[in-house]
Design brief:
The complex is a heterodimer.
Chain A (H helix, E strand, L loop, with lengths): L2 E5 L3 H24 L8 H28 L13 H14 L15 H26 L14 H25 L8 H8 L1 E5 L19
Antiparallel strand pairs in A: 1-2
Helix pairs in contact in A: 1-2, 2-4, 4-5
Chain B lengths: L3 H26 L8 H9 L24 H11 L3 H5 L3 H4 L49 H5 L6 H13 L3 H19 L6 H8 L43 E2 L2 E2 L26 H5 L9 H5 L5 H5 L9 E6 L6 E2 L2 E2 L1 E3 L5 E4 L3 E6 L5 E5 L3 E3 L12 E2 L1 E3 L9 E15 L4 E2 L10 H4 L2 H12 L7 E11 L39 H33 L1
Parallel strand pairs in B: 3-13, 11-15
Antiparallel strand pairs in B: 1-2, 3-8, 4-5, 6-7, 7-8, 9-13, 10-12, 13-14, 13-15
Classes of the chains: A mainly alpha, B alpha+beta.
């Protein structure tokens, strides 16, 4: 079968992906060190890095939000239940049988229904919650001025830690899932170069398309 | 062409990562060192003019040139100019040994019903040996001995007067010379007066509990001439502060802690109130003394400066950590005896019991709002547990409280099994335990002096007594590090419960669930991957 290259991820998208990966990696490592799991940078240094990187992430995330809305890329994150079952069946069964992917990638349909759901939960819920609790944690000394003295630090810390575990778990599965392309490194290559190889002539269902005029075929 | 783009992209990302990783370090490196601790700069400015000057040369005062044969005559000479000093001083706790402003009924103070777990009680000052530290002449409590605090020359007044009287009574030339010699010594000491030095305050406060460094841990003779390593403020190679530099005085009332009364009630720096007492660190250093943005500035609402800046006390001389009176009275060959420990300090004395000394002790930490709750000889105790003779007042939710370092002295001391009160034995004198080694007699005489009942039935109970630590502030380099408290195990604050502390506290359930999730995910993908390898192999085969 003939493979064709399609330009799937724009430069900013790739930059953001890897930058966020680095930020999250540093935050996870320093965060777990602060939690007392291991000694690496030392508590004081770890706190310094965690705060600096965390605040940087907060600021940079604003650019991502701006990008996702101005480019209309948010459409890629709208959840759907269609073909959800096919996806679950594929990962649980079809993939072992060498069956074709039920929802191949296209520029206007980067994410399969499972990805949509996971990435939406991540970008709209888990990461913002993590950032919000992190920011609150960091601004602990201002709580009184903000009328937040009723808020227990313990609760904020608990949610923040839970979020960290959830992100780490996502990371494990996410990294593994990159190997499920037509070759082991195909997805990673795509996220580096922007170009993904797909089978020529793959048909993209209408509902899969992002509802954006930019992508509509005349 | 196609390769150039990803390469550029990777380079950009790489640069950004490097930037993000090293920016804080770069910022720190280029910072102006004088800006690193604004609190120190401020304190240096506040105390810059420490060249005090005086308008009186006491060697020229006629009132001090006469012959003195008793202490009271010296006091009279002082008061002939300093007419209000007596009235002022007699109202102070230093003279009365009673806490001013507390309910008179409670009688808190050394001269009242207060007690500790060292020599226990002054038995309302009937125990004469205690009066060695009362600022009168010898053990007399009539006239004030101004020179205890203001004298610059050390002299044994009792001996000097006694010897002089003797030699004056003799008629031979040599005796008259001796008498004249003693008189000139006395005059010289009387004329050498000034503001209290470390040595003056230390003559009592370094030796409380009957010996050098016994009580406090952060106060002993090593502070008479300390270096900066021992105390950054008092170090004679540095700021060379006298005690009164911080313990400022009003009408002879010296700022500091006294039993129930906190050393301060408001946290004010000299910027906010330039006439405030200098008794707190924040008076000169402000509440945000560290470089801007440093986490330590955020800690000052809940952690006292002392907690981090006094990593250990008793760094030069040892201090007494425990005293077990129940072991007292043992004899060797029918005689009282004593043994010494590695520091050359008595660790056993038949007259006192078993004692333990230690050096470089790490403080214990408690919430503290500046007040100490003290038990008196009239308060009922529960002998089933450890009795807190004194304990810090405060709590995590009290905005006035901060985590503060303490030395805890642990004692085993007598109590009345019937009345359930701590007992105050008489120690010195003919009826005192030190001479008789007879508890029954010492306890009944001691209680009698206090006017309190003694049932005759006594036993010993474990007790604790606390000393807030505020001296021996160490140089910056040896400050307590974050990790020493923010640690999972054996941190300095391991015992301080009731609040969440990052790095120390965890929720076993959350951690367990978290790892189940992560390791579950890992197992899941490994199995899935193996499945793919296995099935693909089969298909190809």
């Amino acid at each position: 079968m003939k493979m064709v290259n399609i330009y799937l991820y724009t430069r900013y998208e790739r930059f953001w992906h890897w930058l966020q990966m680095a930020l999250i990696a540093v935050l996870l490592a320093t965060g777990f060190e602060i939690h007392g799991l291991f000694a690496w940078l030392g508590f004081e240094e770890a706190v310094g890095f965690h705060n600096f990187v965390g605040l940087s992430w907060l600021i940079l995330f604003a650019f991502f939000v701006f990008w996702v809305f101005t480019t209309g890329e948010w459409h890629q994150y709208v959840p759907t239940t269609r073909k959800m079952f096919s996806m679950i069946r594929y990962y649980g069964y079809g993939i072992f049988r060498g069956e074709p992917h039920p929802v191949p990638k296209r520029k206007d349909a980067k994410h399969n229904p499972l990805q949509r759901l996971v990435y939406l939960s991540l970008a709209a819920l888990l990461l913002p919650v993590q950032m919000a609790t992190g920011f609150l944690y960091w601004s602990y000394n201002s709580w009184k001025d903000w009328g937040l003295q009723w808020l227990p630090l313990e609760a904020v810390a608990l949610i923040h830690l839970g979020g960290a575990f959830a992100i780490l778990s996502f990371l494990v599965v996410h990294v593994y899932m990159t190997t499920t392309g037509h070759s082991l490194l195909a997805h990673i290559r795509a996220m580096i170069t922007g170009w993904e190889e797909v089978q020529e002539g793959t048909r993209i269902e209408d509902w899969e398309r992002a509802r954006d005029k930019r992508y509509s075929t005349a | 062409m196609k390769l150039a783009k990803p390469l550029a992209c990777a380079l950009t990302i790489g640069c950004l990562l490097v930037l993000i990783t090293f920016t804080p370090a770069v910022f720190a490196a280029v910072q102006d060192p004088s800006a690193s601790a604004p609190g120190r700069v401020m304190a240096r400015q506040a105390t810059k003019e420490n060249q005090l000057w005086i308008t009186a040369d006491h060697t020229k005062h006629e009132a001090l040139k006469k012959t003195f044969t008793t202490g009271a005559e010296i006091t009279k000479a002082c008061l002939s100019c300093h007419s209000e000093a007596k009235a002022q001083f007699e109202k102070t706790i230093h003279w009365q040994w009673m806490v001013p402003g507390t309910e008179s009924d409670k009688k808190i103070g050394k001269a009242g019903y207060s007690l500790n777990n060292f020599c226990i009680s002054t038995n309302k000052t009937k125990d004469n040996s205690c009066l060695a530290c009362h600022p009168g002449w010898g053990t007399a409590t009539e006239a004030i001995n101004c020179l205890v605090c203001h004298g610059r020359e050390t002299i044994n007044w009792d001996e000097a007067f006694e010897d002089m009287q003797y030699f004056m009574g003799e008629s031979d030339e040599e005796s008259r010379e001796m008498a004249a010699d003693l008189q000139s010594q006395i005059q010289s000491a009387v004329q050498a007066v000034g503001r209290p030095t470390r040595k003056n305050c230390g003559s009592c406060h370094f030796y409380g509990g009957g010996g050098d460094g016994v009580k406090h841990g952060d106060l002993d003779s090593s502070l008479t001439k300390p270096n900066k390593d021992l105390d950054v403020h008092m170090g004679s190679d540095g700021q060379n502060f006298d005690c009164v530099r911080c313990h400022t005085t009003q009408l002879h009332n010296i700022a500091g802690r006294m039993y129930t009364a906190p050393a301060y009630t408001e946290r004010k720096s000299l910027i906010e109130d330039d006439l405030a007492s200098k008794i707190t660190c924040e008076s000169c250093h402000s509440a945000t003394p560290h470089e801007a943005g440093h986490k330590a500035n955020d800690h000052t609402d809940k952690v006292a400066c002392q907690s981090c800046h006094i990593p250990t006390v008793a760094r030069v001389n040892p201090t007494k950590m425990s005293w077990d009176w129940s072991e007292a009275g043992r004899k060797k060959d029918g005689k009282p005896y004593k043994t010494k420990d590695e520091f050359g300090k008595y660790d056993y004395m038949s007259i006192k019991g078993q004692m333990k000394w230690a050096k470089n002790i790490q403080p214990e930490y408690f919430w503290f709002n500046g007040s100490i709750a003290s038990r008196t000889t009239r308060d009922e105790i529960d002998p089933a547990g450890v009795v807190a003779v004194s304990q810090p007042v405060g709590g995590q939710s009290d905005p006035q409280s901060r985590i503060f370092p303490f030395k805890i002295h642990r004692g085993v001391q007598p109590y009345d099994k019937v009345h359930k009160t701590l007992l105050a034995p008489l120690l010195s004198g003919d009826d005192g335990y030190w001479k008789t080694l007879d508890w029954d007699r010492a306890l009944s005489k001691g209680q009698e002096a206090l006017g309190l009942p003694f049932s005759g039935q006594f036993d010993f109970v474990e007790t604790t007594y606390v000393f807030p630590l505020t001296h021996m502030v160490a140089p910056k380099a040896t400050v307590v590090t974050c990790k020493e408290c923010h640690a999972r195990e054996d941190g300095r604050l391991a015992e301080l419960a009731g609040f969440y502390m990052p790095g120390r506290d965890q929720w076993r359930f959350m951690d367990a669930m978290g790892w189940v999730l992560v390791i579950g995910s890992l197992l899941g993908v490994v199995l899935h991957g193996l499945g793919r390898v296995f099935t693909n192999g089969r298909k190809e085969g």
